[in-house]
Amino acid sequence: MLKFVKGNLENIDGVEVYPIISLLIFFTFFVFLFWWVFTTKKEFIDEVSNIPLEKDENDQNDNQLL
């Protein structure tokens, strides 16, 4: 299987640039994500982390009907 893929890829001109572009996109994404995590304000993280624990008005109304 690998010989089949390698044989087809060897025939494509300029194919060696695609792994480099993929690595750059991958590296850029994770550098941005790393930067975002360390620069995000603690208040925002606390607010977002409590979202699943908050009750909606709809949930409270449903409980009152039962």
Describe the structure.
With 66 residues, this protein is mainly alpha-helical. It has one domain (2-65). The chain contains 4 helices and no strands. The longest helix has 23 residues, at 17-39. The protein is elongated, with a radius of gyration of 25 Å. The model has no long low-confidence stretch (mean pLDDT 83).
In short:
The protein has 66 residues and is mainly alpha-helical. The protein has helices at 2-10, 17-39, 42-49, 57-65.
Which labels suit this protein?
4 helices; mainly alpha; 74% helix; 66 residues
Order of helices and strands: HHHH
What is the number of E strands?
0
The secondary-structure class comes to mainly alpha
Number of domains: 1
Query: Approximately how much beta-strand content do the residues carry?
Result: under 5%
Overall residue-averaged pLDDT value: 83
Helices, by number, come to 4
Backbone CA Rg = 25 Å
What is the approximate shape? elongated
Helix content: over 70%
Poorly predicted regions: none
